[in-house]
């Protein structure tokens, strides 16, 4: 069964972490969720990993201001801070062994920021990467599936609204409002198909995110550019996945990541949107399995102790 753990950070923010698998695992998988979501967004991958790789430690956590983690001061609502938080989570709950990092959307950007800000730590710990519906180029390619002119107007309205929400502190969105916005959430995040269970889970996650985190992190997303960071990494087994109907991080985002990391296996999922872990769980699971098996094959087996 998953074990809940609380990690207290240097600024007293408390992160809700869920851990399964042996504490002394040679390899661990850490999955980082997207903006306004929480660790539950990986539930199909968690179930598959636990069933298939019993010797692997699997970790998810709710980012600051999201899910069951505590709120934070507005100046720390940045991708840079999320990169630092990821390093702290690894030290706290995966102190040894090699790590495969999976990041969805903001979670993928968090992984890149961790690599940028903690290069030595990253090199010592990380053995594989899986990027799901994310970008290393801010909003360079984000046009919401619309014309560039309309996209600029939407982005202006979005960033203005985000600034207002960021000043609303630890309040959370009213559930009644989110239910009314479900058609818009479904249009923005999903492709051709959407299981009602998934849209309910996403709406539930957004209801748990603080308005400070919904608004506060938005400025970081457009400003982050980390292709050079990725290109400077040592060769690692990696995968990048994207839906061809993704309105937030369209295929050019994944293509540029794959170009920066030459060993990356690129998967474009026809008809899928931004929530690939839910829309295309088999493809995401296969990518995780592929990277994980490469890491496990390259990890020396423990040496048995000699008797007297």
UniProtKB/TrEMBL annotation:
<dbReference type="InterPro" id="IPR029058">
    <property type="entry name" value="AB_hydrolase_fold"/>
</dbReference>
<keyword id="KW-0378">Hydrolase</keyword>
<dbReference type="Pfam" id="PF12697">
    <property type="entry name" value="Abhydrolase_6"/>
</dbReference>
<protein>
    <submittedName>
        <fullName>Alpha/beta hydrolase</fullName>
    </submittedName>
</protein>
<dbReference type="InterPro" id="IPR050471">
    <property type="entry name" value="AB_hydrolase"/>
</dbReference>
<dbReference type="GO" id="GO:0004601">
    <property type="term" value="F:peroxidase activity"/>
</dbReference>
<dbReference type="GO" id="GO:0016787">
    <property type="term" value="F:hydrolase activity"/>
</dbReference>
<dbReference type="InterPro" id="IPR000639">
    <property type="entry name" value="Epox_hydrolase-like"/>
</dbReference>
<keyword id="KW-0575">Peroxidase</keyword>
<keyword id="KW-0560">Oxidoreductase</keyword>
<dbReference type="InterPro" id="IPR000073">
    <property type="entry name" value="AB_hydrolase_1"/>
</dbReference>
């Amino acid at each position: 069964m998953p074990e809940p753990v609380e990690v207290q950070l240097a600024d007293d923010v408390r992160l809700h972490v869920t851990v399964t698998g042996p504490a002394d695992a040679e390899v661990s998988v850490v999955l980082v969720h997207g903006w306004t979501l929480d660790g539950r967004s990986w539930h199909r991958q968690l179930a598959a990993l636990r069933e298939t790789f019993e010797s692997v430690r699997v970790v998810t956590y709710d980012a600051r201001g999201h899910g069951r983690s505590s709120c934070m001061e507005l100046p720390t609502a940045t991708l840079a801070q999320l990169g630092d938080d990821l390093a702290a989570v690894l030290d706290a709950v995966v102190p040894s062994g090699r790590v495969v990092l999976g990041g969805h959307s903001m979670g993928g950007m968090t992984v890149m920021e961790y690599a940028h800000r903690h290069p030595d730590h990253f090199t010592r710990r990380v053995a594989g990467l899986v990027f799901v519906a994310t970008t290393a180029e801010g909003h360079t390619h984000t046009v919401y599936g619309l014309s560039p002119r309309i996209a600029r107007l939407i982005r202006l309205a979005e960033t203005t609204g985000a600034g207002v929400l960021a000043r609303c502190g630890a309040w959370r969105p009213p559930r009644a409002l989110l239910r009314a916005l479900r058609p818009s959430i479904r249009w923005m995040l999903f492709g051709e198909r959407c299981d009602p269970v998934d849209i309910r889970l996403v709406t539930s996650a957004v209801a748990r995110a603080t308005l400070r985190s919904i608004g506060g992190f938005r400025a970081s997303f457009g400003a982050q550019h980390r292709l050079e960071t990725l290109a400077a990494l040592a060769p690692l087994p990696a995968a990048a996945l994207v839906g061809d109907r993704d309105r937030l991080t369209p295929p050019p985002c994944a293509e540029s990541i794959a170009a920066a990391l030459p060993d990356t296996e690129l998967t474009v999922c026809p008809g899928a949107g931004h929530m690939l872990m839910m829309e295309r769980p088999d493809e995401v699971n296969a990518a995780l399995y592929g990277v994980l098996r490469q890491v496990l094959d390259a990890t020396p087996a423990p040496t048995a102790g000699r008797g007297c």
